Amino acid sequence: MTPSRDISRLIEIMAALREPETGCPWDLEQDFASIAPYTVEEAYEVADAIERDDAIDLKEELGDLLLQVVYHAQLAEERGLFGFEDVVEGITKKMIRRHPHVFGDAEARSARSAKGQWEKIKAEEKAERQALRESAATTRLSGEQDVAIDRREAGPRHLDGVPGALPALTLSLKIQTKAAAVGFDWDRPEPILAKIDEEIKELAEAVDAGDADATEAEMGDLLFSVVNLARYHHVDPEKALRRCVRKFRDRFGFIEDGLAASGRTLRDASLDEMEALWVAAKKRDRGQAG
Hints:
This protein has 290 residues and is mainly alpha-helical. The protein has three domains: 129 residues, Helix Hairpins (Orthogonal Bundle); 68 residues, MazG-like (Helix Hairpins, Orthogonal Bundle); 51 residues, no CATH class. 69% of the residues lie in helices and 0% in strands. The longest helix has 24 residues. The chain starts with 6 loop residues before the first helix and ends with a helix.
């Protein structure tokens, strides 16, 4: 097997890895659920390469992400659900359909700013997907029997269109934004701050009680409220937290470098020593900002 620029070679490699008799033992053990975390991780790696402005890493990480698409398509084909070609056909159809001002006839191209056109197309696609679910023998990746839930009379719920697999901070932001669009929102920051104080107290009570489940629940409530405050101030919480993490990593690296300069390691240092270097890193940052 030799490398190639042709996507078909990657598909062949993936099929070979999943070949029952001669494939890779690790790959043969995987399913949609076990691979999903790697898919999310690779998407983050792509975003990280872009953030670091690293074209070499971006090329590699895009390849890793593409492999995830091929992997899931291979798993689906083995179960008779769909193949890679179906994935390609589906996305090309969607892109053409969603851009009538580019790919449509003269009338469509002249109406590129037609109000509601984008939402109308998405609604049509959603109806088509629902029709496919109703006509298919199964839509479950696990192969388990579908549970019939008929909500056609009630129609879709307002928050149904928000993908549940998004990172939690981003998911919270999107859910809150969509709820706010129909008036479920505070118009001042004071109630949000009061809610955060309330959640902190409830979290402290859960911790004091030694209730692990309640502690997790209250921690989630607190984070959700903080996202609400971020949204009110037009701050992307995912971006803000990633910025904080970058700062922490840099300052922690400053501590490590400072210790290394004296021939010591992190494990050799006391907390007080590391804290002193942390304060020095903060002073350095303030000096750079000035």
